[in-house]
What does this fold into?
Amino acid sequence: MSARLLLCVLALLAGCQGKPPSNTVQGDPERGRIALAQHACRACHMIPGLTGPETHVGRSLAGLAERRFVAGSLPNNQPNLVRWIRDPQSIDPQTAMPKLGVSERDALDMTAWLLTAKE
Ligand code: HEC
It folds into this structure.
C-alpha cells in the first residue's frame, strides 16, 4: 500500500469517529426562525432574530439555552421544550400560553433556533 493511500484510509477512519456529541441540538434553526414568525410567538415573547413590538406577556426567549427550568418547573431540554410549545396545558393547565397547533417538526426547528440563537 502506498503511503498516500494509507493516509487516505487513516483520514477516513478518523472521520468515522467524529460522532456528534449527544447534547447536539436537533432540527433546522433557520426553518425554526421562520416557523416562530409564522406562529406569531413574537406577539408574547421577545425572540432573538425576530423584530416586533416590546412585549412582556411571556418572558423573553433570549438566552433560553442557559436556563435550567422553563415555565416554572419543567427541566430545560429539547424534548421538553417541544412538548411545551406543542401543548403547554398538558404540562401546566393554568398557563396563559395558548396551544397554537404547532407541528412536531416546526416545534423541533423552533427549539433549534431558540437554543442556538445569539442575541
Ligand atoms: C398569548 C401569549 C403567548 C403566545 C402567543 C406564546 N406564548 Fe410562550 N409563553 C407565554 C407565557 C405567559 C409563558 C409563561 C408560562 C408559565 O410560566 O406558565 C410562556 C412560556 C413559554 C416558554 C417557556 C419560557 C420560560 O423561560 O419559562 C417557551 C419556550 C415558550 N413560551 C415558547 C413559545 C413559542 C415557541 C410560541 C409560539 C409557537 C409561544 N411561546 C407563543 C405566552 C405566550
